Amino acid sequence: MKDRKTPFFYAGFVGSFQITFIILKLCGAITWNWWLVMLPLLIGAVAPIVFLVILLTVAIIQSFFKKW
């Protein structure tokens, strides 16, 4: 049986940072721009896309060199 705790742990880890940053921003404890406050959410959304693009690029390069 597969261990399916890793994605949920990551979501909880990133989510806890996100909630903490939003609360600190709304309370005035930090004076960051909103894009910095929302950065954990953006990283969580962009990281899998970047990973897939890298995998696809490596696969294309490997298939190209196998033809030679």
Essential attributes:
68 residues; mainly alpha; 0% strand
How would you portray this structure in words?
The protein is an all-alpha fold. The protein has one domain (5-67). Helices cover 82% and strands 0% of the residues. It has 3 helices and no strands. It has helices at 5-27, 34-37, 39-67. Helix 1 crosses helix 3. The longest helix is centred in the last third of the chain and has 29 residues, at 39-67. The mean pLDDT is 84.
List the topology elements.
Blueprint: H1 5-27, H2 34-37, H3 39-67
Helix pairs in contact: 1-3
Distance between the termini: 41 Å
Shape: rod-shaped
Low-confidence stretches: none
Q: Please indicate the count of domains.
A: 1
Rg over C-alpha atoms, rounded to the nearest angstrom: 18 Å
Please provide the ordered H/E string of secondary-structure elements.
Answer: HHH
Major sheet attributes? none
> How many helices does DSSP assign?
3
- Strand residues, percent: under 5%
The whole-number mean of residue pLDDT values reads 84
Total strand count, please? Answer: 0
